[in-house]
Amino acid sequence: MKRFKMPPWLVLLLPAIIILSAVVLIPLVLSLYSSFTPYKLTRPESLYKWIGTFNYEKALGDTKFWAAFGRTILLLTIALNLEMLCGLGLALMVSKVTRGQRALRTAMMFPMMFSPILVGFQFKFIFNDNVGLVNNALQSLGITDMAIPWLVDGKLAMFAIIFAEMWTSTSVFAILILAGLFAIPQDPLEAAKVDGCTPIQSFRFVTLPFLMPFIYIAMAIRSLDVARAYDIVQIMTNGGPARRTELLWTLIGRTGYVDAKMGYANAMGYISIFLAIFFTIYFFRKLTAARAELGMGV
Amino acid sequence: MTKFTNGASIAVLALGLASGAQAGQFDGVTIDAKLIGGQQYEALYARIPEWEAATGAKVNIISKKNHFELDKEFKSDIAAGTTGWCVGSNHSSFAAQYPSLYTDLNGLIAQDSIDGFVGANIAAATLGGRLVMLPRAQFDVSALYYQKDLYTDEAKSTAFKAEYGYDLTVPETWAQVKDQAIFFADGPNFYGTQYAGKDEAIVGRYYEMVVAEGGKFFNDDFSPAFDSAEGKQALQWFVDLYDAKAVPAGTTNYLWDDLGNGFASGTIALNLDWPGWAGFFSDPSASKVAGNLGVAPAPKGSAGVRTGWSGFHGFSVTEQCDDKAAAASLVDFLTNEDSQKIESAAGPLPTRTAVWDYVTEDAKGDAFRTEVLAAFKETAKTAFAVPATPLWIEATNLIYPELQAAILSDKTVDEALADAAEAVDEMMREEGVY
């Protein structure tokens, strides 16, 4: 009798297949399955009751879910663009520094080293209406005699959250764009100078196209980060007050772990994943187009 | 030293025996426990070695977290089927959520031990006829802390009487609290009062106000009943104070720590808060109101009923525990008279009748402590627990954003309560409650 022998490619891939199945595939399939059940953490038997697309229909018809969805896209759009602009400015300035540039680059990365939870606590205190630094500073300087409700007013609270996000992550853009600046060949810039381009024209028509692939990579990475924003928001406002800062993951987290409605939370999660997939595809397409424009191939 | 150790061991053994355990009764047994963590709870846990010495069992604390974190862990344990540990910290507001996790302690605990607890506490710890937890000396009900000098200021008294037509005295009703809070407020440096503004906390405060106004939160079938005249009146109280800027603008983001620290900073006139804060507020190194601190029973609503949302911590034994008798013995020990005397010495309120008498007697001669105990004892007489439904926390998550929306004028009181009631009704129907 001939012993069954697995083909070598399968033997070599097997550890990866087993690990990926255990860590990614099985939880993914299980969570997808549970989104078609009324699964509650406190009632394990509810995992075996099939309710079809009820959870999806409920989420799709829920204005609170769509409001959170819209708010997440708003946060994503504003935070990403502001971070990109600030990161670009920061990188351009740091690239001109001739002495102490390494120290500056290291210092620039400090905010990234803090846990988002701690960043949340830090900004919750800074923006506290009663004992917070911002209000105390504004009152001491005589700019206002009111306690500005930074974390209560809908617009101000979103501003505070975006500010915290920017503080912690602008350096991601700055570092990646700085790497792009160092990679730019000097010949086209010199040619532009010889042709009489102003510094703004050189930047607009030479530097920026070279930087675009780096910007899109940073955008793709950060869009995934911001689309799953949870920790900073959870600490600063917990999605409130009155759902004014409710984002997808604060809503999903509360539904899944506090209300224990894991089936419904998973359904909302799967709908939300499309948001992340959309932005990833969008930025990779942009990246590919930018690379093609530079003749870097696809 | 040896003599002392021997003496201590004998004393320990005697204590253990007094709690109902017999020497060596549980030799070789290990009890895995998941307990609430925090400085204020440690004094009791320091007694565990005494129970170990008396019974021969070992206690292995496998998790120590705050109740919100423990709650998530218990839910994950139920989902994963990993409920083989034996003793867990429990809370009256959370207990109804774990119908299958904990065993009935009736039969495992001697009846005379159960009879020693305050009847209302045992009633609140009994769900569907099953005694799911034994209360420890961590009974919570809120009384009114206030700054005394506000009531001895002649100019204020005169101005108040001229404006409101009655004497400025420590408020006995919530209507008076509102008048006085608006009168005292002088933002952004001083506010009349404050309230917890989110999560279960604001719903708890609203719930007790509905009861004080003579209303019901849920009907008998757990359909929402708070969208009533009394419910609207209760919510209007919160709205009026916010509109009048008598509370800090950020109050809708505040939880217990923010409130406690706010009152201790001396910027709040009246503060409905828990007994555990009495020590902190009266500590001159931590609080600016120390030495100027008064405590009164919780005020009454328009129905003549005091607010009295209460809760208590306790210990439960899991259904899957291998040695329920040993686990129940530990729970009995941690909630017996000696344990409650140790815990309540630091300020928390007991749940055993005999220990209430003991702390009252012990406080004689200490005017502040006597005042604190009198205020909380009076409030505790009419205290009430949260509605006994496993969906309480889930209902609060649907209600609190609507209460906030009314407070922040995103919705009218009528709209907010109608939306909250509709959401709770839908959830109850979906869960098959009715």
From TrEMBL, chain A:
It comes from the Bacteria. GO terms for cellular component: plasma membrane. The chain crosses the membrane at residues 12-33, 73-94, 106-127, 156-184, 205-224, 267-284. Coiled coil: none annotated. SUPFAM superfamilies: MetI-like (SSF161098). It is a multi-pass membrane protein. Belongs to the binding-protein-dependent transport system permease family. This is Trehalose transport system permease protein SugA. It comes from Pacificibacter marinus. The lineage of its organism: Bacteria, Pseudomonadati, Pseudomonadota, Alphaproteobacteria, Rhodobacterales. The gene is sugA_5.
UniProtKB/TrEMBL annotation, chain B:
InterPro entries: Bact_solute-bd_prot1 (IPR050490). The keyword Transport applies. SUPFAM superfamilies: Periplasmic binding protein-like II. Gene3D superfamilies: Periplasmic binding protein-like II. Keywords: Signal, Transport. Residues 1-23 form the signal peptide. It comes from the Bacteria. Belongs to the bacterial solute-binding protein 1 family. This is Putative ABC transporter-binding protein. It comes from Pacificibacter marinus.
